[in-house]
């Protein structure tokens, strides 16, 4: 009787392990969170203020802020946009993106990585985020690793 219980337990554990196996799959690298400004003219992107907050959705505990600009005359406290007018963000931080030229503020919160596993040599994991209280999901990309996860801010 003890032998039958042991064999049944062994079969049960083996089946559980096989059902949860990700055989042949590898963990994808995290997406690089990038804010991409769409349909803004250069005057709108003259000054963009990005404020980082604690990851609690309240936007009341400011951690730091940065000023971005698309002009060469940017000051010592101002970061010059790269060629594609994008800003790289961190996981586990909430943000406000303020654009004084158009008098608008966008709220980005709960940026979360999915930690996807795919059958691919290189892959980028998916992510989710909220932009002004609307949730967006970016699917995993099986074609490359360390790819961007674009957060589109549109005019």
Task: Explain what you see.
With 155 residues, the chain is mainly beta. Helix content is 12%, strand content 41%. The chain has one helix spanning 2-19, and strands at 26-27, 32-38, 48-53, 62-69, 78-80, 86-88, 94-99, 104-113, 117-118, 127-131, 134-138, 148-154. The strands form three sheets. A seven-stranded mixed sheet has the order 5-4-3-7-8-10-11, with no helix packed on it. The radius of gyration is 22 Å and the shape is elongated.
The proportion of strand residues reads 35-45%
The H-and-E topology, N to C, reads as HEEEEEEEEEEEE
- Radius of gyration, taken over Cα atoms and rounded to an integer in Å: 22 Å
Overall helicity: 10-25%
Cα end-to-end separation: 73 Å
What's the arrangement of strands in the largest beta sheet? Answer: 5-4-3-7-8-10-11
Structural class from helices and strands? mainly beta
**Can you tell me the overall shape?**
elongated
Unreliable spans are: none
Number of strands: 12
Mean pLDDT: 81
Largest sheet: 7 strands, mixed
Q: Helical stretch count?
A: 1
């Amino acid at each position: 009787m003890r032998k039958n219980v042991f064999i049944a337990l062994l079969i049960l554990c083996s089946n559980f392990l096989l059902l949860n196996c990700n055989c042949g799959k590898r963990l994808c690298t995290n997406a690089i969170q990038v804010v991409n400004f769409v349909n803004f003219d250069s005057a709108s992107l003259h000054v963009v203020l990005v404020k980082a907050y604690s990851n609690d959705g309240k936007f009341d505990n400011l951690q730091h802020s940065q000023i971005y600009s698309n002009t060469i005359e940017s000051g010592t406290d101002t970061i010059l946009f790269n060629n594609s007018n994008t800003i790289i963000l961190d996981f586990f931080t909430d943000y406000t993106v303020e654009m004084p030229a158009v008098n608008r503020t966008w709220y980005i919160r709960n940026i979360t990585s999915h930690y996807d596993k795919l059958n691919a040599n290189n892959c980028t994991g998916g992510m989710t985020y909220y932009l002004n209280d609307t949730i967006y999901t970016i699917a995993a990309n099986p074609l490359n690793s360390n790819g961007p996860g674009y957060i589109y801010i549109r005019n």
